[in-house]
Structures are given as C-alpha cells and as structure tokens.
Amino acid sequence: MKITIFHWIIFLDILQSSTIARPSLLQHCISENQSVKCQQKMPDMIDHSVDTFQLTGIKLKTFDLGRVVYIFPNVQNVSITDGNIVNLIPPKKPNSIKVLELRRLLLTNISRDFIRHFHNIEVLDLRENHLEQFPVDFFWGNVKELRLSNNSWNCSDDLSWIFNMNKRVVVDINDLKCFGLPYPGKPLISIAQYIKELEDTCIPNCECFLSKVVQDIMTDDLVPIITMNCSYRGLRELPSSLPNNTRTLHLEGNSIASLEPLNNNPVYESLWDLYLDTNDVSSIDDLEGSFWLKHFREFSLKGNKLTKIPAYALDNALLKNPNMPKAVRLYLGGNPWRCDCIFIPVFQELVLQKYATQIKDIRDVKCSYVQGDENSLMPIIDLSRSSVCRLPPEYSLQEGLDLLNGILASLIVFILGKLAYDYYHFKKTGRLPWIVTKMP
Length: 440
Ligand SMILES: *[C@@H]1O[C@H](CO)[C@@H](O)[C@H](O)[C@H]1NC(C)=O
Ligand SMILES: *[C@@H]1O[C@H](CO)[C@@H](O)[C@H](O)[C@H]1NC(C)=O
Ligand SMILES: *[C@@H]1O[C@H](CO)[C@@H](O)[C@H](O)[C@H]1NC(C)=O
Ligand SMILES: *[C@@H]1O[C@H](CO)[C@@H](O)[C@H](O)[C@H]1NC(C)=O
Ligand SMILES: *[C@@H]1O[C@H](CO)[C@@H](O)[C@H](O)[C@H]1NC(C)=O
Ligand SMILES: *[C@@H]1O[C@H](CO)[C@@H](O)[C@H](O)[C@H]1NC(C)=O
Ligand SMILES: *[C@@H]1O[C@H](CO)[C@@H](O)[C@H](O)[C@H]1NC(C)=O
Hints:
Keywords: Leucine-rich repeat, Repeat, Signal. This is Protein singed wings 2. One of its GO terms (cellular component) is extracellular space. A 7-stranded mixed sheet has the order 3-4-6-8-10-11-12, with no helix packed on it. A 6-stranded mixed sheet has the order 13-14-15-16-17-18, with helices on one face. By secondary structure, the protein is α/β, with parallel strands linked by helices. The chain has helices at 65-71, 188-201, 260-264, 291-295, 311-320, 344-353, 385-388, 392-429, 434-438, and strands spanning 3-8, 14-17, 29-32, 35-39, 45-46, 52-56, 62-64, 77-81, 87-89, 99-103, 123-125, 145-147, 207-215, 222-229, 246-250, 273-275, 298-300, 329-331. Strand 16 (273-275), helix 4 (291-295) and strand 17 (298-300) form a beta-alpha-beta unit. It contains 9 helices and 18 strands. It starts with a strand and ends with a helix. The site of one 2-acetamido-2-deoxy-beta-D-glucopyranose (NAG) has 5 residues, from loops.
C-alpha cells in the first residue's frame, strides 16, 4: 500500500492511505497512486507526489491553470474535460506539465504564446472545443503532438495558419472541419487549398471567391464552386480565361458588345450563371446553337442594347436546357426592343408567353421609346397583335391602295363612257373615231 502526503492549506499535513478517499476530497476527488481525479471542483491541499491530475465537469467560465500547478507542483499529465471553461489562464510559474488535455470545454481561442508557459509540454489536446481560429504565428516550443479536431473552425477567416502546420505534429489535421456557412462540415485543409489556388488563378483586377464546396454524389469528390466578380472593371470583351470551376461570373457595368467567346471559348462551358447587366450587347445571334444557351442557369442581359433576338433559336435551346424549368432564370428588361409586326408576335409567343416563369423581369421587357407611338415603353407582354401590326407604315400603304383603286375605277367609267360615245357617233355619222384612223 502506498502512502501519500497531503498538505492542507489551512491545517497541518495529514497522512492518509491513498486507496481511501480523503475527507476533504470525499465529495469530488478520488486519488490512486500518484493520480488524482476530481469532479466539478479543484482540491485545495498541496500534494507534491501527484503526477497525474484529471478534472471533469468544472462550471467556471474562467479557469486558472496556475492553481493546478500550485496544488500539484510536480504534475505532468493534466486533463481538464467536460466543463464550461471559456477562458483559460496559463500558469505563471515554471511547471512540469508534459501532457495537457483540454477537451469538451468551451474554449474559443488559443493565444499564440500559450506554449511559452509550459517549458516541458509535448502533447496538447484541444479537441471538442469551440476554437474558431488558430494563431498564424503560434509558438510551437517542443510540442510533438497537437490535436485540434471537432472545433468550430471559421473558414470565412484567413486560413493561412493551416499551411504553417506540421502534419506529423498536428496528427488530426485531416479531420479538421469547417464550422457553419459557407462550407459546413467540409475538410478545412481542402478549403484552405482551394482558396489559395484561387488567389493564384484569379484574373488580375477581378475578385474570385469560393462560394461553396459540394460533394459529387457519384465519386464523393469535393467540387469547388467559384464565383468571379469582374463588374465595373471597364472590360470591352468577355474574359478569355476563367479559374477552373468558375460557375458564376459577374460582368455588370462593363462595355462588352460581343458574346462570341460564349460560343467559341470552351472555358465558358462550365459556367452556370452570367450577369451582363448594363453592357453594350446589341445582338445574341452569336449564341445560336451554342452550348451556353442549352445549359445556362441564369443569364442576365438587363440594360443592354438589344432590339431583337432570334426567338426560334432561343426557344429551341431552352427546350433542350436540362435546368428547365426550375433553375433557369433569364433577364431581358431595360433593352430598346423594336416593336414591329415582324418581331413582336414571334417574340411574344415563343419567348415571353412560353417562358414567362423563367423571365424574371418580364414586365420590364418594353418597347423602345418612339415619340408619338402608342406602344412606346409599353410592356411587350401586354401588346395586342392588332396594336403592333397596325403601325404607321402599313397604315399609309392601305391609304395608297385605296387611292389607286379610286383612280382605276374612275378610269374604267371614263373608258366605258368614251366607248359608248364613239359607238353612238359612228352609228350616226359613219365616221370612225379619230384614234382608229391613226392605227395602222
Ligand atoms: C497503482 O499502483 C499499483 C502498484 O504500484 C498498481 O498495481 C495499480 O495498477 C496502480 N493503479 C493505477 C490506477 O495506476
Ligand atoms: C500521461 O499522458 C500520456 C499521453 O496521454 C501517457 O502516455 C502517459 O502514460 C501518461 N502518464 C501518466 C503518468 O499517466
Ligand atoms: C482568448 O482571448 C481572450 C480575449 O481576447 C483572452 O483573455 C484569453 O486569454 C484567450 N484565451 C486563450 C486560451 O488564449
Ligand atoms: C468529431 O467529428 C467527427 C466528424 O466531424 C465525428 O464523427 C465524431 O463523432 C466527433 N467526435 C466527437 C468525440 O464528437
Ligand atoms: C467568421 O469570420 C468572419 C470574418 O472574420 C466573420 O465575419 C464571421 O462573423 C465569423 N463567423 C463566425 C461564426 O464567427
Ligand atoms: C462585384 O464588385 C463590385 C465592384 O467592386 C461590387 O460593387 C459588387 O457588389 C460585387 N458583386 C458581387 C456579387 O460580389
Ligand atoms: C484546371 O483544369 C485543367 C483541366 O482539367 C487542368 O489541367 C489544370 O491543371 C487545372 N488548373 C488548376 C490550377 O487546377
């Protein structure tokens, strides 16, 4: 049987058998050999012989590790688990702690100098806390093993700290998961690599971000979803390259006129959403038969210079688009549409009526401004065929035809009259009409 000496803080030393719980510890501590296990409270007597200390269920928000070192000056293994500790104050005095386990607490941060307070520390276990970030310039000392999984890593923050980590030290590095949006439960190291790679491949002057990461159902591989923002960058052309896996491209407020690359350049085949609001696009004829029209999800051409579009080609492509009907969104408002009898009836029937749920700004699809025209700036969906096909040009042609008919009718009356007169004159005088005498 082993004998342990305990130093009471208030009273004198008391000798006790280690297998029997000591009076002061009765409620919450068990001691065996050189190891003490406590629940909810710290013991309050100093013991130089203890090398292993475990504390569970402590309810303090701030806990001072200095107290552990004070009570057990030679302690080497310290384990504090399942408590409410948010802030941990490191010991100020030199100590012998080699193994420090701080699990299932509520720790939210670890300071970069934490290790400086433990000259002998080799193992630090911080699993199952609420850590959100790790200091980039963490002081590692002689740490040989660090565990960090099951924390609340915030992957919207700078993740460059992960690249400073030695995989042989941070043994569970591959188990670190992002917490919360935008990458819930995704492996932190992969997210950090995607973000780093994106910084290297983003087009200069544009902004790229990893909007989310999805898991391929078939292969289980992670697939990054990239958004690139080149809005208001003074661009005159569509970019000729995109970072891999770019799915959304913002190009609002540039001076882009031609959509040809959307048809020719294969980098656009992986694009889903394209925002070209307020550019100089006057025609989408280049997109006839293109992969893009048959596969896009969102396409915004608001505020461009479109006067007409190939309605049959658009209809054809939308019929083949696998994202129809739910995922397709098309924006065509704010363009100077030409409201004539040739374009409008087809546009109304094959595009506006047929795809009314997909065209999100359908009431902004209006006739261009034409002074004195009753259809000027009218929503095209509301126009009746008769109002479009009774436009001034047709009107004057009709009037012209009426005039011509009148002239022809009066000519016929004149000729018949002349014929009757000549016949009557010939019968009476026997003389042929003047015109007949001149004929050969
Ligand atoms: C305590 O020490 C005894 C003898 O040295 C040993 O048999 C026993 O397993 C030890 N108990 C613990 C929990 O280490
Ligand atoms: C201290 O902890 C380490 C690692 O958990 C373990 O290998 C070692 O046996 C422990 N030492 C004592 C004295 O409990
Ligand atoms: C966490 O941060 C707070 C305030 O910034 C600080 O007081 C506390 O010591 C830190 N905790 C750790 C474990 O570094
Ligand atoms: C830690 O997280 C992993 C996956 O994120 C989970 O499977 C495991 O149960 C968690 N461990 C604990 C002790 O919560
Ligand atoms: C994560 O970090 C970002 C950027 O620092 C911050 O805006 C956001 O609030 C953090 N999220 C959480 C859950 O703390
Ligand atoms: C894109 O960048 C522009 C200009 O920096 C900014 O105004 C706009 O909000 C950004 N759009 C998105 C979707 O991030
Ligand atoms: C982008 O994808 C192409 C083709 O799949 C590949 O060859 C290239 O290495 C990728 N680039 C990056 C930076 O991953």
